[in-house]
Write a structure and sequence with these properties.
Blueprint (H helix, E strand, L loop, with lengths): L3 E8 L15 E8 L2 E8 L9 E8 L13 E5 L3 E9 L3
Antiparallel strand pairs: 1-4, 1-6, 2-3, 2-5, 3-4, 5-6
Length: 94
């Protein structure tokens, strides 16, 4: 089973380099970054968050060994070609 944790995600506004449209309900495959290290992940959420909005998500790390880099309180970037969002771990991996 791949590790899951709860996070708060903040999409950058379009004029700050964020996405130009909303996320599609359900899943966003992206890369999470901390201190120039990067890991593939799936972000699971509800609704259709728009650039500039903050929303809760369940994060699934696609490399189980990466979980040690994501303790509660850790801040990270969400990369999709370049940084499109920031995030913060709210609860530990399950």
């Amino acid at each position: 089973m791949l590790p899951l944790f709860a996070a708060e995600i903040h999409l950058l506004p379009t004029d700050a380099g964020g996405r130009t449209g909303h996320l599609v309900h359900g899943e966003w495959r992206a890369v999470l970054g901390i201190n120039n290290e990067y890991w593939s992940a799936r972000l699971l959420f509800s609704g259709n968050p728009l650039p500039g909005e903050t929303f809760p998500a369940t994060v699934q790390l696609l490399m189980p060994e990466a979980v040690r880099y994501f303790p509660v309180g850790t801040e990270f970037t969400v990369w999709e070609g370049d940084t499109k969002a920031t995030g913060r771990v709210l609860s530990g991996a399950a």
